[in-house]
Specification:
446 residues; 21 strands; alpha+beta; 6-stranded antiparallel beta sheet; 22% strand; disordered N terminus; globular; 9-stranded mixed beta sheet
Length: 446
């Protein structure tokens, strides 16, 4: 991999930056998919009798208002480490707080290395169950850990600064793989015991965590993962951060170490098929009337006045379709002009990629028709909730764009061909809770 200085490279497109940070130039290791046990760091029971009070959703699902609400509650919520800028604090302050909480016994390091079984359920139905461990980092060229989205330098720079200051992985990324019977028996066997923690959170889910410390079980998991590969479902920017931190240590001559792994949840998608939701857009600087007028040049536009009816019509479309809102009316865009579509789409992408809704949105609508720059300031995102996206557009006087979710088979096919779906195309779930278990990069210091 290229040398990583204190600042990540500037001036690269998301596609170029993704190629740089995921790395394609390292020699193949031949080790395949690895998930190793580690000394987990967890909130001490006396500190967090209600784990819901100290844990949160993943950092990128917490908006500014949500972060401020969590901070206002005081106490030991993990947001005080994972989102220091929400409190106007530095990364160094967050890293110092983590070390202080360890010294004070707020956080405790498990004495035995373990793999952790994580479960999310609703109303007694298990939606997801998988293993949390230290994922061996792999260059994309090895075809072992498959990204399916491009990443932006800004979020990677943010997470890299925090991870380096904390010397810890603060939350797991989420991967899917085609598992095996051995891992399933180990996971289900652990889940028959009393969990380390069990709580209901404000996401409506019941979260549980168990610990597997038997080295023989670890060896069986390792053997079962050989020859497997995994798709990054959620956490592309954090995986890119793992890779950048790894490169930084190798460039400094540190050699092999804990930076060659990153905290991850691995879920067997055949046993627990993931939920795949859409990520909607809000364009604060684009007035709805202007957006609709320009879109009529290349789309068929159908107007609606009732949100439920409009969303039902959007869900019934099989081709590229988008619902625009932000005012009193809603506007369904369908049947894009084929000539305009051909002119706007990158010629070096596969036919499957060129028909993805998010690709059509990015290249035909946002770039060609609306001429909106592709950055975090011009385009906001809202996960899963179309009503929230439309309400946000109304508040800021902009345009909300509601999408249908992509199909899982399309995402997998694109990733297996070495392509990536456009940024912020997928919202896989359920996502693991942040604060259940952390991983120190310098465990010997404890």
């Amino acid at each position: 991999m290229p040398k990583v200085d204190d600042d990540l490279p500037a001036g690269l497109t998301p596609r170029e930056f993704s190629a740089w940070v995921f790395g394609t130039s390292e020699p193949r290791t031949g080790r395949g998919l690895e998930l190793a046990p580690f000394h987990g760091v967890r909130f001490a029971p006396g500190i967090a009798d209600d784990p819901a009070s100290v844990t949160t959703p993943p950092y990128d699902l917490i908006d500014e208002a949500g972060a401020l609400r969590l901070l206002a509650g005081g106490g030991y919520n993990i947001v005080r480490i994972n989102l220091p800028r929400a409190a106007g604090e530095s990364y160094a302050t967050a890293g110092g707080r983590l070390r202080r909480w360890l010294d004070e016994g707020v956080l405790a390091v498990d004495r035995e290395p373990a793999l952790y079984v994580y479960e999310a359920s609703r109303d007694g139905t298990v939606l997801q169950r998988g293993l949390v461990g230290a994922l061996g980092l792999r260059a994309e060229s090895e075809g072992v850990v498959l990204p399916h989205e491009d990443v932006f330098p800004g979020p990677v720079r943010d997470r890299l600064a925090l991870m380096a200051a904390a010397q810890a992985n603060l939350e797991p990324i989420f991967l899917l793989y085609d598992g095996g019977e051995d891992a399933a028996r180990i996971i289900d066997g652990a889940a028959d015991d009393e969990p380390l923690m069990e709580f209901c959170a404000d996401d409506g889910l019941t979260h549980r965590l168990w610990r597997v410390t038997d080295p023989a079980m670890h060896a069986r998991v390792a053997a079962g993962l050989r020859g497997k590969r995994a798709l990054i479902a959620d956490g592309h920017h954090r995986y890119a951060t793992y890779r950048a931190l790894q490169a930084r240590h190798h460039a400094a001559g540190d050699g092999p170490g804990p930076w060659d792994s990153g905290l991850a949840l691995l879920v067997d998608s055949t046993r627990y098929p993931p939920y795949l939701g859409a990520i909607h857009r809000v364009l604060p600087g684009l007035a709805l009337d202007d957006a609709v007028e320009q879109a009529r040049k290349v789309f068929r536009v159908t107007d609606f006045w009732d949100e439920a009816t409009a969303l039902e019509a959007l869900a019934g479309e099989s081709g590229p379709a988008f619902l625009l809102g932000g005012g009193d009316s809603l506007h369904l865009l369908t049947d894009p002009d084929e000539d305009a579509l051909s002119r706007s789409m990158p010629s070096d992408r596969s036919p499957r990629w060129r028909r993805l809704d998010t690709a059509v949105l990015d290249h035909l609508l946002i770039a060609a028709v609306w001429n909106v720059p592709e950055n975090e300031h011009a385009i906001e995102v809202v996960h899963d909730d179309p009503s929230a996206a439309l309400a946000r557009a109304r508040r800021v006087g902009g345009t909300g764009v509601v999408l249908n979710p992509l199909k899982v088979e399309d995402v997998l096919a694109v990733a297996e061909e070495g392509e990536r779906v456009p940024r912020k195309s997928t919202s896989f779930g359920p996502k693991p809770r942040t604060g259940l278990v952390l991983r120190l990069l310098r465990p010997d210091s404890r």
